[in-house]
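job 3f2a | input accepted
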Amino acid sequence: MFFKLITEWIRSPFDSARLFNNFARQDFFSQFTASIGGIFWLFLTPIVNIIIYAFVFGYVFQIRALPEFGETQFVIFMMIGYLPWFAFAEAMSKSPGLLLEKAPLITKVMFPVQLLPIVGTVVPYLTHIIGFGLLLVYLAIQGYFSILWLLLPIIFFLQFLFTMGLVAILSAFCVFLRDLQQLVALLVTIWFFLTPIIYPISIIESETVRDFFLLNPMHSFVSLYRDIILLETFSMINFQIIIPTALFSYFLGGWLFMRIKHAFGDVL
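job 3f2a | predicted structure (268 res):
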């Protein structure tokens, strides 16, 4: 039963490719419906957030990048971690409402409902990979490019799998526990500040406390991005953390969603 559900979860976007593409296209372009700015908002929102964080932490609190990053500007140090995080955070924030918003469709039409958390993860990542890609182009022009950059798509894909598993779990649970909508928004904010995105982890003096950051998978993802791009190094410890974590999240989320999806119609 376990392997059957997992196989169905993995094959869903391929077996229902046409429906998946329609859902993804509709979800992507719905962001710009009745919007004057349109796609412009995709770039403006992260840019404004980056400016605010860079001003507060880089100028007001005078936080600088780690000494080993040399002359790297704080805003670049922050953007390398913030842009991948933004994709993760948006997918997580939208996950509680994925099934609730499609309740009329779920209760009236027979279709592979597992496509919804997949689409709910794909669209934010496709949206924000544009900004991350532009940043990488800029850094390559500035001379940061190295052969290790070929590992970035692998790391980004593992982060995508990690996120998809969590989105599947949260979207499924929220059908039965509606309070999760408020709780997830709070947890994403807390998670953001517990991940060294807007501050270098070196400001934490206790080595024991710094070791606890290894329990946060997003810390390992962010660290890998910075190590590869800015230091041209590769941390096997962080890589060994994200592989099992991403796969465990993806398979657990998929299995759990497939296991309880038949009860959605009765509750919605």
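job 3f2a | The chain has a mean pLDDT of 87.
job 3f2a | closed
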